[in-house]
Amino acid sequence: MSLELLDVTVRLGRGESRVTALSELTVSFAPAALTALVGPSGSGKSTLLAVAGALLRPDAGRVLLGGEDIAGLSPAEQARLRRERIGYVFQSGNLLSGLTALEQLLAAASVAGRSPRAVRARATELLSEVGLGHRLRHRADQMSGGERQRIALARALLLEPDVLLVDEPTAAVDRERAAGLVDLLAATTRRHGCVTVVATHDPVVVDAADHVVDMARLRTGADSPL
Ligand SMILES: Nc1ncnc2c1ncn2[C@@H]1O[C@H](COP(=O)(O)OP(=O)(O)OP(=O)(O)O)[C@@H](O)[C@H]1O
What we know:
Blueprint: E1 3-12, E2 19-29, E3 33-38, H1 45-52, E4 60-65, E5 68-69, H2 75-85, E6 86-89, H3 101-111, H4 116-129, H5 145-159, E7 163-167, H6 175-192, E8 195-199, H7 203-208, E9 211-214, H8 215-220
Parallel strand pairs: 3-8, 3-9, 6-7, 7-8
Antiparallel strand pairs: 1-2, 1-4, 4-5
Helix pairs in contact: 3-4, 3-5, 4-5
The chain binds adenosine-5'-triphosphate.
Adenosine-5'-triphosphate (ATP) binds next to strand 2 and helix 1.
């Protein structure tokens, strides 16, 4: 299932601080492929992820997931789409306070309508794969930013979404860990066939990516869409 943004414009802020974060941007992202989204700070990478994940409604343009315009859905339909088909791994982690690493994954599975018991073994395995196998029963709110983001990554991979949106997954980890996380992301993406878009400044991610989209070139029209 492909993901396409067609002539998308997003304006953010109010009054004098109002900026056009995305201007008539057109780009498509392939399924079963990891796309690295690169570009200078402020070029709109995070904004693109928010629009692609139906967290932000564009001022103009369409966002097609498998041919359906998700920007035009009602708020309730968008909420359902976000819950069932989109995985987010943002730097804040968006975790639930008070829960352990393992409970974060089991709770997410439960909200998505899956039996926590059925996914427990896979959840444990994924937490080990992101390097947190020894901290399954530690509270996530007592972990570092990089560790919390790795929990969010394991949680997203457990739910096997159609679209996986990841913001700077390697910013808060050491180089060796970064390579391991990117390999896991790429392998899972190819296995499950999801559209994975990773906003990054990290050459490790760019080297492992199937495609690279450069925001700076898109904005000036120098890049043709994939
Ligand atoms: N809430 C907001 N209100 C006003 N302007 C905003 C808001 N959020 C972002 N912007 C602006 O929109 C533009 C795009 O920001 P965005 O965060 O998408 O860039 P980015 O490429 O992800 O940057 P970075 O690499 O630093 O994370 C920037 O000019 C930014 O200052």
